[in-house]
Every structure is written in C-alpha cells, then in structure tokens.
Amino acid sequence: MAEDRKDGKKMTKAEFTYRGLLKAFPRPGGEGAHAAFFKAGVLGFKAGIDEDRIVADTLAAVPPGGRPLREGEVEQGVRAGFGAAARRAAGLPDETVCRPAGKPKVPKDAIARIVNAFGGPTADDIAAKSPVPVLGVPDRDSAALALSELYSPGEYLYIGGRNWPGKPGETVRQVQDWIAALASYGPAWPHIVPNPLTGRAAPTKAGGSPTYRGDNCVASFRYAVVESDSLPLEHQIAFWLWADLPVEALVLSGGKSIHGWVRVDCADKAEWDAQVEGDLFPNYLEPLGADPACKTDARLSRLPGYDRSAEGPDKQGNARGVQRLLWLAPGGGKVRA
Predict the structure, then answer these.
(1) What is the span of the domain harbouring residue 234?
(2) How far apart are CA 183 and CA 308, in angstroms?
C-alpha cells in the first residue's frame, strides 16, 4: 500500500488514498465530482496536508471535458470535507449532519419571528440565486438537471407514483437510465425517493412481502426531506431563508408546499435514527411546522417538472401546477434570495 515520497519517507494510508483520488478524479457533471471534492478535504486533513494546498491540488486534478465549474465550487466542497474531518478528530459533532451542538430548542413564537425577519421574498427570488441556474430551464429538463447534478450515474433511484410498487427496470432504475427516460418522455412521474437505493429487495418494516423502495432498501442516508402543508407558502419561503441547513434542492410541489432535500449524510441507519428521527425533526423541525411523516429514510418527494394541473384543484380550491425546481446546490448550501 505505502510507497516512498520524494523525501524518502513512507506515505501514510490517508496520503496514499488522497493521491490515488487525485490521479483518478471524476469529471464534473454527474460522475461523482462533488462527493470527490468533499472526500479530498477529508483525506487531505487526515494526511496532514494544508487546507489551501488541498484546494490547489484538487483544482489541478479535475479532468477537462466535464461540466464547467462555477467559481468557488471546488473550494466549497474541499473546505466542507476538511472542516468535517477536523470536527470529528476533535470529538465535535459534524455540522453537515443536522445541527450545531448546543442549539436551543425552538421557542413557541419562532415562526412569527422568522416571518417577521425573513418574509417578503418570493419563489422567483430564491430561484434567481440558485447556485446551479434553474431560472429559464424548461420544466421538462429540470428533473434530468437535478439528477445529473446530485447523483452518480450508477446509483439507483425510485421514481413513480405514491403507491406504485418498486419494480427493477421500471420504477427502480439507475440514474443514467432515468436521465435517458426523462429525455424521451419528460417528467412523466410525480414522485421520487431522494435517498439512493440498493436496487435489491428487502423486507418491509411491517414484515410483509419484500420491497424495492422501502426504508430497508436505502443505500445512502444522504437526504432528509422537509416539507410543511400546515404553513402558508410565504411562511415556508421565510423558513428556508432563515434555516441554516445544507439544502441541495427545493421543489415547489405544484400546490401549496415546498419540499427541501437537506443534506445530512448519516453514516448508517443507527445514525439516521438518532440524528434525524430522534433529534432534528422532533426538537427543531416539527415545532416549526414540518411534517413529522417526512423523517422516514425512504420518504417520497416531488419530482421536478411534473405537471399536476390535470389533478384539478386542491381541497382549498387552489389550482395545481408544475412541480418546479427552485434551488439546486450540489453539496448543500444555505438558501438565499
């Protein structure tokens, strides 16, 4: 494993892995580059390499021919990984997972304060500040854009109806196959499970017939889906502008709610249960109006671009429309307007 450096010393395992990552760095544009930026920061810290040097090494390692990088994109990912590794080494909680340590519980009048401080901007204002441009992207292309930016081609996703079964090759496919299907048919499916799946059947929680889209099929505990039907839309917008959360995507449901895909990156089911189901939702999000049903691992969200107008008005008589992509920030970013 170890090999000699120019100074004659043996490389550590972290440095060896770090240099291997740089030699085979993925191209931006759906091949895993954003995850590699973060990983470079983690490995570089473990190898004892200066943070600025890691940024420079990573910038030099990105191969040509992929999607053009936006200013600061590499640096943001590397520094996030470096900071996460530094916090873990110091025994501190990782800020990319849920919340800062010691944050107080939510006061009863929190929403009123949030709306007073952050109310006013519109969904268009948020879309205009999306790190990956979404304004002007045709509705039929928004789902493919999100999938190409947030996932690797070989990851499995469920896309379909709320009560449709998971079927390999139909509703459970690899990302590259979904992007091809979207190119042919457009966003013809209303829902998506944002967390990548294994592509294999597993027992349901209730012990029924095996499923391909249940909580036991989750391969990566990457996202917590956050939404609230109980708050007016303008209050939801204020919440997202206030919340200091790493949000990778916001999707307007075509009705009265915004779905947020919050990057949590839990290591496994046990960490998800402790951090997301046991802390983030009951102590912070639910008191602010978030739907408690969202805290399950394989929670459905809305697929960008799907048109709900044929469903007719909702219970309040409001017309439904297109499920619109408002915010897209690979690696997660605080929502701005």
Answers:
(1) 110-333
(2) 19
